[in-house]
Amino acid sequence: MQKENKTPDIIEEILNKESGVYGISGVSVDFRDIEAEAQAGGYHAQLSLDIFHDTVAAYITKCMVAMNGADVIIFTAGVGEKAPLSREEICKKLNIFGVKLDKQKNEVRGEEALISKDDSKIKVYVIPTNEELMIAQETMKKII
End-to-end alpha-carbon separation of the chain, Å? Predict the structure, then answer.
């Protein structure tokens, strides 16, 4: 902050709005834009997706270790329910645990579905969430 002569507000803006996948891709915070750029050959967009997929797979793995295994993996909310490519790439990294994704079933967007193959050791689902409803419910808990 001192070296760049930036205020705390500017640093907060940089960390919250210009970092993460946007900072790496240089494209957007919207995964649809990043995926489109990656498919068009954008190196940094693909790099940001690769890092995201690795990070999500690593977190799932950490949870599986903490729980001594898993029966189900659920993709939900924004990217989880609307990004078949990301789900596929994340599940590929979990093949070692017997996760087998059905490519055709995985094409679903925004609706509840089982997307793993019948012989997958861990079932994989997409379950949409109503984020606005969840926010409203949590807000009501704080008010009451």
Answer: 40
Q: What count of other Cβ atoms lies within 10 Å of the Cβ of residue 21?
A: 22
Task: Please enumerate, as own/partner, the contacts of 90-95 that have beta carbons within 8 Å and a separation of 24 or more.
Answer: 90/53, 90/56, 90/57, 90/60, 91/116, 91/124, 93/53, 93/54, 93/57, 94/57, 94/60, 94/61, 94/122
**pTM of the shown model:** 0.83
| Domain C-terminal end among 68, 87, 110 | 68
What range does the domain containing 44 cover? 1-68
Region 67-78 average pLDDT = 94
